Amino acid sequence: MKKIFRLFKIFLILLLSLPLLTEAQTIPAGMPVLAEAYRRAQLLGKINPNVSFTSWPLFPKKVFVVKNSFYPDTSREKRLTPKYNGILHFGKGKGLFQLLPVIWQQQYNTLHPQGLNDGAMIPARGYQTLFSAGAFFRYGPLSIQLWPEVVYAQNKPYDGYPVNYPAYRWAQYYWTMNLIDLPERFGSGAYSKITWGQSSIRLTFGAVSFGLSNENLWWGPGTRNTLLMTNSAPGFKHFTFNTVRPVKTFMGSFEWQLIAGRLEPSGFLPPQSDKIYHGERLYVPKPDDWRYLSGLLVTYHPKWVPGLFLGFARTVQQYHKNMGGNLKDYFPVFMPLGLRAAGGDGELAHKRSQLWSVFARWLWVKGHGEVYFEYGWSNYSWDNRDFKVELAHSGAFVLGFRKMIPLKMHKDESIEVLMEFTQLSMNPSTINRHGLSWYLSPVVRAGYTNEGQMLGAGIGPGSNLQTLQVSWVRSLNMIGLRLERYVHNNDFFYANVKDVRDNWVDFNVALLGQWAFRNQLLLNAQVEYNHSFNYQWQYTPPPPPDYWNGKGKDITNIHLKAGITYRF
């Protein structure tokens, strides 16, 4: 630990040599209404086109021309800024105190858990609420953002993986559950928790910031999913060294984030954890230990190609008990990507699990659109030759397109079209090499999770998602329709279920709404109809010779969501 803190001291010395002071107040990943409003504003050419939107939280005050980070619509701000805005300046301009928005989110699921990218909320049936409020303090380069979150979930029982399945089906189920910490239900009763939420303490100079944070991270260009970091899980404690705005160089601008964090287990067992098969208990207890996570994201904007952003992201995790004391043990993200160059069997002895991806986002300001992709790998290649020959091994991808269509007859109004495809299921190369689903790990058996929820794409291991959304947009106001097809854990289906009639697929239709009411109130709401075909892979084949007219367990869940954000 002494070496890592010595390195942090060097970072501080470098920071102190930079002359410009920058606001360190953030817009969290997935913040209701505002997070998407900033990205739409960029597509419409209203804010800085040189920001990649591939790394959250966002630091808007110095990146974009806004007086207040929580009022991205400057025209509304000039007309409707309240007399008291929650901001107090002191110390001859060196100090600032600001009340942060009060956020109250609620959701309800009628039959089973449903929902993506909801942070500290848990997968649960019934009523659930999240409340957050806080304050921001800055004096000189030091800033403190205290923004805790309180979560309560009714957490009603529901039909999960069928209890009446034969023992061999449960053995198949546990082959997956023993390699990841994804409890079906978070306890047997109501759930409540207080977290640090989107809190941080930072030293910020110019374009760079260093500090300790619990904020949710979002890495990559995706909207519904990205491969390495989303807000599908609660935020986790981490040291961070990152940019707060693009750093300009002779060859273009760069954004980056380097983290060293701590991931926690859920503390909950999977269902039927006492089941026995062939005389052995199916559930293999996971180590009672936290995990160390090292992560790096770099995004490059070449000055010769306006609107193009190219990026790289990598995370490496291991149980704390398996860590060494060398500098490379604290920053394994700088080790070679190939297993041979990293040390071969010696690297395997460290029992580390890695994910990495490359991504691109191309913004067309004049065309009010963007196209983006991310392609990632969940396993080592042996060397460069192996990587070139078997490029698809352990691969997954996110591909998306978004277009804003301004309405000529209605000023400041647009139609937004969004399409995104996420593919996590194994390809033939991965299957041929006896690979594992994304986010599973035989050496870090909690998988790629924090407190029992996905750090990466919220759809989970082996799953795929296709999204189409069409919305009417005017400033912060939006009314939209979203259609989605969600294929649950295709890897489990192909390896164990195999019957082509028995895939578990959801078709979802959601009506979405956001509205700025009297300027300070932001309202958001969602009504989603979810129809599951062959829920939990339950299907009863018909008697022969009939083949297609069997009976699947098809169920309907209604997912309701509503929230209020109060801006001072």
Number of helices: 11
What helical percentage do the residues reach?
A: 10-25%
CATH fold description: Porin
In the CATH hierarchy, the architecture is Beta Barrel
Give unreliable regions as ranges.
7-21, 75-80
Question: Which band does the percent of strand residues land in?
Answer: 35-45%
Indicate the radius of gyration in whole angstroms.
24 Å
Indicate how many domains the architecture comprises: 1
Distance between the amino and carboxyl termini: 41 Å
Overall mean pLDDT stands at 93
In CATH, what is the class? Mainly Beta
Q: What structural category arises from helix and sheet content?
A: mainly beta
Largest sheet composition: 18 strands, antiparallel, barrel
E-strand count: 30
Morphology call: globular
Protein architecture, described:
This protein has 568 residues and is mainly beta. The chain has one domain: Porin (Beta Barrel), CATH 2.40.160. The protein is 14% helix and 40% strand. It has 11 helices and 30 strands. The protein has an 18-stranded antiparallel beta barrel. A two-stranded antiparallel sheet has the order 1-10. It has a two-stranded antiparallel sheet with strand order 14-15. It is globular, with a radius of gyration of 24 Å. The two termini are 41 Å apart.
